[in-house]
């Protein structure tokens, strides 16, 4: 499940927006179970944005006024970084998977948790928002924050877009990993594509109370209950406390597995739309408390709608880039998309648990260029960031608003942005950067209606 504070984060909904900056932080056409029908196994077909349709993963989606995907974003679909052996994101995913496989074994010796890491990122708006109780007028649905193929279909903004279908299929314990897509600002820890991993565990009445003295007299649910800071209306307090204990014990063990046995952890109460009660787990790393995941007791309405109304469960979610950048000391999120052997070979290890400290590639010098323009009334910063990504691609390391000016007489408003260009593998020349920068200026005037102050 993907969580946030009182307003969903534009990036990783499990992670509060102001803390998520350290990172890079809910679940199509032509079949009954769209995400499974659109599995991204096998060679990916070349995506095409036509005049009337978007062709992606062998399917055609009609364009409308919501369509805002770009060729650069569609070019990332199907890269499967989290499934690429010995990629740092794959290493983190495999470490988490191995921990759950070895720590949670069923009565017949089989793993309790199943793993799903190849579901298509193309989902319906209903999967991405409605199935997770996100209101129709919620700001997290804005086209400015998401990549829409059309009004009803989008690139998932979080892996929780698949939660309902997996629970409905009868799964009681699963891990889910995949690429997710968000429009956002540009710096060393933000990228329009990143990767999440989440877990869900459901309990029947017998499973939860079987080891409790006189457990046969206890129940998951009660009639006429009321919602308090500690429980939902339909849950008994004893059931919630047992589920909460299991959740916190499970995640404390996971974090200890990843960060080491001497790591300090603490729990912070918070609000997520999909769980209650809800928590964030923080670890003390290099002297600072740092949030690493969000979690909570699942809202019963979600389980009822997925056909699991006789069970009670927990869910958690985390960002793979966030963990990889922390654990492997990777300084720039663009590096995850690099095909440079100097980067990739550092993660080819015999044991996925092996400690790795990334050795930076030669640090090529940055080139800085400013762009200033008068704003139209309809201007949004995310539209400008997306335009810069579309034109400059991964040559752009960071975009910073350095001046916000309002003319005292006319009331017109202007912005000045500083764009930092840096290639990850070679030195850029001012001449080639200037060509890209001028194209950004021309495209911003044509597409966003700004008036240049160059």
Q: Strand percentage, roughly?
A: 15-25%
Secondary-structure-based class equals: alpha+beta
H-E order: HHEEEHHEEHEEHEEHHEEEHEHHEHEEHE
Q: What would you report as the Rg, rounded to the nearest angstrom?
A: 23 Å
List the helices and strands and how they pair.
Elements: H1 17-20, H2 34-37, E1 48-49, E2 53-56, E3 59-62, H3 71-74, H4 88-103, E4 114-116, E5 122-124, H5 125-128, E6 148-150, E7 153-155, H6 163-168, E8 173-181, E9 193-203, H7 205-209, H8 237-259, E10 265-272, E11 275-285, E12 288-298, H9 300-305, E13 312-319, H10 320-327, H11 341-344, E14 367-374, H12 381-392, E15 396-406, E16 413-421, H13 430-448, E17 451-452
Parallel strand pairs: 4-8
Antiparallel strand pairs: 1-2, 2-3, 5-7, 6-7, 8-9, 9-13, 10-11, 11-12, 12-13, 14-16, 14-17, 15-16
Helix pairs in contact: 4-10, 12-13
Provide a concise account of the structure shown.
The chain is α+β, with helices and mostly antiparallel strands and 454 residues long.
């Amino acid at each position: 499940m993907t969580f946030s504070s009182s307003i969903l984060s534009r990036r990783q909904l499990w992670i509060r927006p102001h803390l998520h900056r350290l990172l890079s932080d809910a679940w199509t056409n032509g079949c009954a179970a769209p995400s499974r029908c659109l599995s991204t196994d096998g060679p990916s077909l070349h995506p095409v944005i036509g005049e009337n349709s978007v062709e992606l993963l062998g399917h055609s989606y009609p364009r409308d006024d919501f369509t805002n995907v770009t060729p650069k974003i569609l070019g990332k679909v199907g890269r499967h970084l989290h499934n690429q052996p010995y990629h740092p994101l794959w290493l983190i995913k495999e470490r988490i998977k191995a921990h759950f496989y070895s720590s949670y074994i069923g009565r017949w010796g089989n793993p309790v948790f199943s793993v799903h890491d190849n579901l298509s990122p193309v989902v319906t708006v209903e999967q991405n928002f409605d199935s997770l109780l996100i209101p129709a007028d919620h700001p997290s649905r804005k086209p400015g924050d998401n990549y829409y193929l059309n009004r009803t279909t989008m690139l998932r903004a979080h892996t929780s877009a698949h939660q309902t279908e997996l629970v409905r299929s009868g799964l009681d314990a699963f891990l889910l990993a995949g690429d997710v897509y968000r429009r956002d600002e540009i710096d060393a820890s933000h990228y329009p594509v990143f990767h999440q991993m989440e877990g869900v565990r459901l309990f029947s009445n017998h499973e939860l109370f079987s080891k409790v003295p006189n457990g046969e007299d206890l129940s998951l649910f009660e009639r006429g209950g009321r919602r308090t800071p500690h429980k939902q209306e339909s849950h008994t307090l004893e059931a919630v406390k047992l589920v909460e204990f299991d959740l916190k014990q499970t995640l404390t063990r996971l974090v200890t597995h990843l960060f080491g046995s001497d790591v300090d952890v603490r729990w912070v109460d918070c609000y997520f739309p999909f769980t209650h009660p809800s928590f964030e787990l923080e670890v003390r790393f290099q002297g600072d408390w740092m949030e690493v995941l969000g979690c909570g007791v699942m809202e019963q309405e979600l389980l009822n709608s997925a056909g699991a109304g006789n069970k009670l469960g927990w869910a958690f979610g985390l960002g793979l880039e966030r963990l990889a950048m922390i654990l492997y000391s990777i300084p720039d999120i663009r590096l995850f998309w690099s095909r440079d052997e100097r980067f990739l070979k550092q993660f080819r290890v015999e044991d996925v648990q092996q400690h790795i400290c990334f050795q930076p590639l030669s640090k090529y010098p940055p080139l800085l260029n400013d762009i200033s323009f008068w704003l139209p009334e309809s201007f949004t910063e995310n539209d400008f960031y997306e335009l810069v990504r579309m034109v400059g691609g991964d040559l752009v390391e960071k975009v910073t608003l350095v001046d916000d000016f309002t003319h005292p007489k006319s009331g017109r408003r202007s912005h000045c942005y500083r764009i930092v260009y840096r290639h990850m593998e070679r030195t850029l020349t001012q001449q080639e950067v200037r060509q890209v920068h001028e194209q950004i200026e021309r495209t911003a005037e044509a597409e966003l209606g700004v008036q240049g102050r160059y």
